[in-house]
Specification:
mitochondrion; mainly alpha; mitochondrion inner membrane; 2 domains; 8 helices; about 230 residues; globular; about 5% strand; about 60% helix
Length: about 230
Amino acid sequence: MSNEPTKTLNASDASSGFNWWIRTLKYKTGINLTDQEKVAYEEERKIKTETEQCAKCNEYKDFMLQYSPTVTFMIDQIRRAGGYVDPAKINCEICTVPRYGGFNPGLGVQLCANYIDNRWVLNDTLSHELVHWYDNTRFKVDWGDIRHHACTEIRAASLSGECAIVTEFKRRLGFMRYAKGHQACVKRKAILSVINHPKCKDKQHAEEVVEEVFRSCFNDTRPFETIYR
């Protein structure tokens, strides 16, 4: 028989345990919280969600860096053009504006973890931004020139796969024609990007600039020999 003393639960212990259970239940459900507790609860939940989103984004990114034909091809072509894609410059982050990602010549690629909800969206987004990286390396893009900006946006939308027939069919419920639908998708995406350029006056101005450079930029498929539309 054990000589260990028997631990008895006194009223104070029971009360403490019950209060801990109540507090835990409140924070897990968000019910009956004080205003101060609600702020803390929402902040904790936000941090947890964003941490999970970034972890999932990084998982998708690592997969695509290793297995995506378009991503690995573009990285190799950037190297051949004299550049280098440092994996440390492809970052999953929480974005404050609705978008999938972005490219900055000095900082690299931003992937918006809170808007990318699956690996295929990340694949198209990363491919898109790597086209910008390639253009910046090969053609020395002047990002202050709205026409340069429009041209690389046209190429990125066309070459990345985001306007491929299967992708766009899913997004737009099939209401498109094969070749013209691809071009319409490319123009639409390029216009949405050019609108945010500092020298863009309004949507009409963006449409005019995209239309002005569209033919030459759309037909330039480098570094691909051709593209699947």
